[in-house]
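Final report, closing paragraph on structural work. Over the funding period we assembled a curated collection of sequence-structure pairs, and we close with a single example.
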Amino acid sequence: MTDIIKHRGPDGFGYFHENGIALGHRRLAILDCSESGHQPMHFRDKAVLTYNGEIYNYIEIKTELEKEGYEFHGHSDTEVILAAYDFWQEHCLSRFNGMWSFVLWDRERRKVFAARDRFGVKPLYYWRTPQGLWAFGSETKQFTVLDGWQARLNKPIASEFVATGLHDHTDETFFEGVYQVPPGHSVSFEMSALPQGPRLPVRRWYFLPQDQLELTSEEAAAQVFKTLQSSVQLRLRSDVPVGSCLSGGIDSSTIVALVAGGLSSGSRQKTFSALSEDKNIDESSHIQKIVSKFKTDHHTTTPDFAELWGLLDKLTWHQDEPFGSSSIFAQWKVFELARRENCIVMLDGQGADEQLGGYPEFTGALLADHLRMGRLNAYTREALALSCRSRISLLTVLARTLRAIFPGFATKLQSLSGRRVRPGLWLKSPIRDLHREKALSFGELARYQVQGGHLQMLLRYEDRDSMAHGIEARVPFVDYRFVELATRLPSSLRVNAGVTKSILRSAMRGFVPDAILDRRDKIGFATAESHWVRTHPSLFRAELRQAVDLSAGLLSEQVLRDFEAMLSGRIPYNSAFWRVISFGRWLQVFQVDGTQR
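Its predicted structure, as stored:
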């Protein structure tokens, strides 16, 4: 189980077993690279821990525990977790600021305690074998080496993915019978009372506050800057080199700016970017503005279609599950380049959009909120500003509003419209009801994006792409202090006068170039996917054919008919075609039996 994920920990390994308990670890040495940081780590004769992630405030917790009489033999955060558990027991989780998944064997109480961080930055899966063994892992592929494993398709999850692109929104995975401990949850059971059935008794230990903060725009901007600055400073704690991902957008540029402000005199930050052969999505000019301002040691890579196609099986194997677009490959190339340049820790800008309203659906939710509350003047002002700033028609603005108020009805209208891809019709059975079909306010949408939807998907992509190259990716926007601040701000501070992430732009004014803060487009590490489809139609057609054939009746021939319609120009390109291709490759790579359920 540890050998198959040696990419996650190329710096060492360790094992522990006693009386029906076995713990294994692959080490990526970040803090205390000496032997005193070795895992599984013992705490006296009381507990043993195997753990993935970082507790960024371990120094502060260690100082607090030393005042209580605890002595430490090294300077790793792993030792701090064990001492914190000994002192606070399971309540220790609320003390940690970081990303983690761990399994702890409490030898005194003969109890297993496993936990995952607040927002699911680090993964934790489990599966019960036919023989009754409970197995935990950082990646689901670890279960494939166990007796009794057979990869079976979870058809409801696969259907939702094909139709909507949604996944990682429940505790289920694409593999039937394999579950994840949800973000902000833990598991605790005694060996004398092993759980029965396929699921473990998980407990939610973290609750995101829902009350709204009453702050002026100036106060909010100051708090946003201060909290982000602290978050970045904590994430610079490392005994190995640290670098930053740079897409050229507001979020990654903010991280680079704050890192630059926290470096010691004479230090030079390393930054890494993915460029594109498609000039419509290439962000070179924006990237260069940041590189020039902060004098970073900059490195670039340009994803190539031929390489993507040759690596698709490897990408699929590392991701464990299908992925929604080929942008995953751009991220893969960035981490590959960083490792080559000896950057073992990378900071990235994931999470800001979900909290601060960076996606188009947030503008619809805000407009819908105005209508629900009878704020017609506010609706009109926001609609006109959005149309003007984003250069979209008022009809499109109205459509966003209607989708936010009547999401289920809007979906039905889309399915009846002519010139569009309708992936829901590619399925031979309807998908189950989704939470996203319910009308959500702006605040509810942000909390859902953070805790139950989009962010979990992006964090899984980032974890697999980074760890495939033995890199630890850190996400300052997902510091719980920032999340608790951002998601409690009034919607008018997050999206205002057609400007998304308004408060972040205000907070970073004077630190990040205006040309970046005033951007209205959103690209990220995109690839020329639609261009590749049209220049290599035979390859995509063959992949779609294979996916339909392997899907055991899940997919219909309509996929192929719509693909031909797209090539002829009768309907526009849709990333759903890639989802089907990725799904087909996953079925093949993991030899999934699709006949179940």
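The first strand starts at residue 13 and ends at 18. The mean pLDDT is 92. We thank the funder for supporting this effort.
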